[in-house]
Automatic annotation (TrEMBL):
Pfam families: TPT. The chain crosses the membrane at residues 30-51, 63-87, 107-125, 132-152, 158-175, 184-205, 225-242, 254-274. Coiled coil: none annotated. Keywords: Membrane, Transmembrane, Transmembrane helix. This is GDP-fucose transporter 1 isoform X2. Residues 29-327 form the Sugar phosphate transporter domain. It comes from Microcaecilia unicolor. One of its GO terms (cellular component) is membrane. It is a multi-pass membrane protein. It comes from the Eukaryota.
Length: 354
């Protein structure tokens, strides 16, 4: 009996040790994935700002920079698709990509919204700077509420609206403080508002057009960027950017094309690490991580560019971040409540005794 007792005790200790090892392994994976998301996202913002507004480059061609990043994304998607087809038995989770003109035409409305999103996003970053980028492009949550009501007839709770009010208050305070410091650019605010609008529209249109590509985010990424590559060409010609690029004195330098390609790779990678973070955590944790990342990004930008900001300027950032966090938290609680109310009804229907 004593031997049996000691054996079960050892089994219990072994199971506990295994559970601890599994927990530690998962915790390490989560830390690595979140750190990777932060690194890729923050680096991408700084890289894009360098390409769009660096005095050392002095290239006034934001559409060309965006166009080239779309080209890199298309090539990477196609390359990874071919690689996955050569190694079908591997753990490489990437769909095969076959060009289909019908699909390309079908998602054109989404592609137009996508072009607006990435263009205004980069224009906002060019004129607004990295430090004020979080506040300047913070209205996507507000537009989500407005568009959901206008197009989908979805109402928003009072607590969620209060969170939106905090974001809006932080936005106006930030504009006021930028004006006080003499660094306010109204064109950058317009681009920031338009970028926020198109981010919200892109989220809604993506859900609508995903079935066209069998629910594959990567296929949608491929066709979206391919459409963007085609549509950017006449836009660049119309705005004279092709002439600007042709006359650019660093066009033949390895450094320029290296930085451009690196920006494209990070632009592609952000989609992958975003999906990875959601997979290893949850959509709520991803949003919280994104809010915390925005805070770290702002602090890094102020330190890197050696800027001095007032207390009220920092307060505007804090209001935007806390409002975004609050909105995410409120919406997650509402979704959880709806699920809890829905599940008992499903159980009642499936219970034969009812």
């Amino acid at each position: 009996m004593a031997l049996m007792g000691s054996s079960s005790s050892l089994d219990g200790q072994g199971e506990e040790k295994t559970a601890q090892e599994l927990f530690l392994t998962r915790a390490v994976k989560i830390v690595v994935v979140v750190s990777l998301y932060w690194f890729v996202s923050i680096t991408m913002v700084f890289l894009n700002h360098y390409l769009l507004d660096s005095p050392s480059l002095n290239l006034d061609a934001p559409l060309f920079v965006t166009f080239y990043q779309c080209v890199v994304t298309v090539l990477l998607c196609k390359g990874l698709g071919l690689l996955a087809s050569f190694f079908p038995a591997s753990s490489m989770d990437f769909p095969s990509l076959r060009f289909d003109l019908k699909v390309l035409r079908s998602i054109l409305p989404l592609s137009l919204v996508f072009i607006g999103m990435i263009t205004f996003n980069n224009l906002c970053l060019k004129f607004i700077g990295v430090a004020f980028y979080t506040v300047g492009r913070c209205l996507s949550t507000i537009f989500n509420v407005i568009i959901s009501f206008l197009l989908l007839k979805q109402t928003t709770s009072l607590y969620a609206l209060l969170s939106c009010g905090i974001i809006l208050g932080g936005f106006w305070l930030g504009i006021d403080q930028e004006g006080e410091e003499g660094t306010l650019s109204w064109i950058s605010i317009v681009f920031g508002v338009l970028a926020s609008l198109f981010v919200s529209l892109n989220a809604i249109y993506t859900k609508k057009f995903l079935p066209v590509v069998d629910g594959s985010v990567w296929r949608l990424t491929f066709y979206n960027n391919l459409n963007a590559c085609i549509l950017f060409l006449p836009l660049m010609l119309l705005l004279g950017e092709l002439k600007t690029v042709y006359q650019f004195d660093k066009l033949g330098t390895l450094h320029f094309w290296g930085m451009m390609t690196l920006g494209g790779i990070f632009g592609f990678a952000i989609g992958y690490v975003t999906g990875l973070q959601i997979k290893f955590t949850s959509p709520l944790s991803h949003n919280i991580s994104g809010t915390a990342k925005a805070c770290a990004q702002t602090v890094l930008a102020v330190l890197y560019y050696e800027e001095v900001k007032s207390l009220l300027w920092w307060a505007s950032n804090l209001m935007v971040l806390s409002g975004s966090f609050s909105y995410t938290w409120v919406k997650s609680l509402e979704m959880k409540k709806v699920q809890e109310e829905h599940n008992p009804k499903m159980n009642e229907k499936s219970d034969p005794t009812v």
